[in-house]
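Q: what sequence does this backbone want?
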């Protein structure tokens, strides 16, 4: 099966489609759980599949440092290593180099950095990042780009975007075409519409199989992010998938699907699950809160996950209070199930032509039942 994306329906700017890959088809819009180091934290691969997830993300930076891309390749690639025969998207490592690595030295060719694990020196260039993603057997390879710091001045953002566009061309040249595999270019340019437009113009002739929008959810706020999507997304080729990197809260996902985004990844549902925060159809709840201690009701009625069908809010509360490892496991399971249900519901609404009404009813339910202390969303800069 050759790599591609088929559009089945559009509703305003929103689209419902199918992504075709060597490792299976994926319905879009889609949320990808983050499997940072070859595992979606606290979840078995079967558990991740049971949430409805079909496509997961792996991190080049983490995997190159430990266990090493050579080792993963020798053991049969990342699909086999982590028991995920379905499609895997790997990021390029650029974001983690900026956010995690010690002592970095940037030059035109790439970046040299020290591992946050043991201080050893490593180098990433567009060619090295692309080769590592090939070794991992990524279904979708991401172009290597510079993660523009935020805040930054317009000239700084321009300089960074232009470097990323030169690196995008080198990433594309280094990509080894294989049937059913694809590579995405990444649109940069901060919150500046004219820089975003120039970035799109630079990427289009390179012939990527899809386009990511990078450099958002880094502290600019939801209004600026939506405004940037509103000006950038219409410039992208209509027949190819669009991926908003590192986003976001359920409300971010709804607003971005409405603006024409097809793919998302974020650590929020998994990280929140490990810290007792539950995303539900009734808003965000903190399961450590004492008000759950005698509550025999399910966390989210109607949710098919084991945390909701077989346990009570009181039990989940108890697990977190007692420091039991099952608490993070069940709540991660729930949050990923909720995110998948959210995406499935939006896809069905797009196919029915009723996404705007559906989005309004989802948001109304969050507002109506969120608790006074608990309707606090995680900061939108949280990423892998
Ligand atoms: Zn649940």
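A:
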């Amino acid at each position: 099966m050759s790599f591609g994306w088929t559009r089945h329906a559009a509703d305003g700017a929103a689209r419902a489609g199918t992504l075709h890959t060597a490792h299976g088809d994926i319905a879009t819009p889609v949320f990808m759980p983050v499997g940072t180091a070859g595992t979606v934290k606290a979840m078995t691969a079967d558990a991740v599949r049971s949430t409805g997830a079909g496509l997961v993300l792996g991190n080049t930076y983490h995997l190159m440092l430990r266990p090493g891309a050579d080792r993963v390749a020798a053991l049969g690639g990342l699909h086999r290593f982590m028991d995920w025969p379905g499609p895997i998207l790997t990021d390029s490592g650029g974001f983690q180099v900026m956010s995690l690595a010690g002592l970095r030295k940037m030059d035109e060719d790439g970046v040299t950095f020290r591992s946050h694990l043991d201080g050893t020196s490593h180098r990433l260039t567009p060619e090295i990042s692309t080769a590592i993603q090939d070794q991992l057997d990524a279904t979708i390879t991401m172009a290597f780009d510079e993660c523009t710091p935020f805040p930054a001045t317009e000239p700084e953002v321009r300089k960074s975007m232009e470097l990323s566009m030169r690196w995008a061309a080198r990433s594309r040249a280094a990509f080894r075409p294989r049937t059913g595999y694809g590579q995405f270019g990444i649109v940069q340019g901060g919150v500046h519409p004219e820089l975003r437009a120039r970035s799109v113009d630079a990427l289009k002739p390179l012939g990527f199989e899809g386009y990511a929008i990078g450099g958002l959810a880094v502290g600019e706020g939801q209004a600026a992010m939506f405004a940037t999507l509103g000006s950038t997304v219409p410039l992208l080729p209509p027949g190819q998938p669009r991926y908003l990197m590192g986003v976001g809260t359920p409300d971010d996902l709804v607003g971005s699907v409405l603006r024409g985004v097809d793919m998302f990844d974020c650590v929020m549902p998994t990280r929140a699950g490990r810290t007792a925060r539950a995303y539900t159809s009734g808003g965000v709840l903190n399961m450590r809160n004492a008000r759950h201690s005698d509550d025999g009701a399910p966390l989210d009625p109607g949710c098919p996950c084991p945390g909701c069908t077989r346990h009570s809010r009181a039990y989940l509360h108890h697990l977190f209070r007692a420091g039991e490892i099952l608490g993070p496991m069940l709540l991660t399971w729930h949050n990923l199930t909720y995110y998948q249900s959210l995406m499935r519901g939006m896809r069905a609404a797009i196919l029915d032509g009723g996404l705007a009404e559906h989005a309004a009813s989802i948001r109304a339910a969050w507002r109506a039942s969120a608790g006074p202390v608990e309707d606090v969303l995680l900061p939108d800069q949280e990423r892998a």
